[in-house]
Amino acid sequence: MIPCYNEEQTVATVVADFRAVLPSATVYVYDNNSTDGTIEQARTAGAIVRRVSYQGKGNVVRRMFSDIDADLYVLIDGDATYDAASALALIELLRSEQLDMVVGTRFGNFEAEAFRAGHRWGNRMLTQSVALIFGRHFTDLLSGYRVFSRRFVKSFPALAKGFETETELTVHALELKMPIAELPTPYKARPEGSVSKLRTYRDGWRILTTIFSLFREERPLAFFSIAFAMLALISLLLGVPIAMSYLETGLVPRFPTAILATGIMILAFLSLAAGFVLDTVTRGRWEMKRLIYLSLPAIGSNNPLP
């Protein structure tokens, strides 16, 4: 599965390379409103081409996962930066270990021009943030080279619109405690004439806000407990001096501040109550997603390994 937007220079190479490495696979190119010759190049190279009108990689991935019915899925960017031959190792690891996702991490072998220092630092920062919140450390949260089982794809509630879809994919696997792994793969610079669609600051901010939103939605008790602690601390900082003054003199010297401190403490406990309620709702959602996930067979379950 190859999501593409204006990849006229590279898409034919990607399609040809994967058809050579995986001759029994069906290669799909989903075009996302390209204004160049991406569609013609992909068809000429032998891919099945479909179009997605909603702009953004997340929208394309959602359409792919909805449309395509298979036992095993390989997701790859159309920019010819990933190594097609590594697909064999990724697939073998998925099948032999009966995993649900294998990520091709770029941190093992990459060209300096392909993975600039600023992008590496940002990637590590975002990866560490996800590990801190959701557990389990990944080295490359934003890799576009992934292999999935059928039960991963068909249980994935794709909501992201853009490049934040990789974050959503990772958190989905972590939340359902799926068996997953990483494998180093070579990462090359884009060919001359090919232009990256990634906007460093804009897309980095979107990914960061996605992590924040997923933290609120998937860990509501922890999220609102932090809000409770912050609000309670502010209330105490405002209210303790007034309480001390009242105990000494019997007077409330700053009545508006006392009201403010009381109101903030009420908000603190409301936040904590919201956390408990939403935690119950979230656990119900987890159970439903887990049941959908378990309703599908594991990879290789019909032909168990000896």
Structural class, by secondary structure, is alpha/beta
Largest sheet: number of strands, sense, barrel closure = 4 strands, mixed
CATH superfamily of the largest domain: Spore Coat Polysaccharide Biosynthesis Protein SpsA, Chain A
On the 0 to 100 scale, the average pLDDT is: 88
Helix content: 40-55%
The geometry reads as elongated
For the largest beta sheet, what order do the strands appear in spatially?
Answer: 4-6-5-7
Order of SSEs? EHEHEHEHEHEHHEHHH
Count of the domains: 2
Ends apart, CA distance between termini: 31 Å
Q: For the CA atoms, what is the radius of gyration? A: 24 Å
Low-confidence stretches: none
CATH topology label of the largest domain: Spore Coat Polysaccharide Biosynthesis Protein SpsA, Chain A
The number of helical elements comes to 10
Structure characterization notes:
The chain has two domains: 2-218, Alpha-Beta Complex (Spore Coat Polysaccharide Biosynthesis Protein SpsA, Chain A); 220-294. It is built from ten helices and seven strands. The protein has helices at residues 11-21, 38-45, 57-67, 86-96, 117-134, 150-153, 165-175, 200-218, 220-249, 255-294; strands at 2-4, 28-31, 48-51, 72-75, 101-110, 146-149, 180-187. It has a four-stranded mixed beta sheet. Strands 1-2-3 form a three-stranded parallel beta sheet, sandwiched between helices. Helix 1 (11-21) runs parallel beside helix 2 (38-45) and helix 5 (117-134) packs parallel to helix 8 (200-218). The radius of gyration is 24 Å and the shape is elongated.
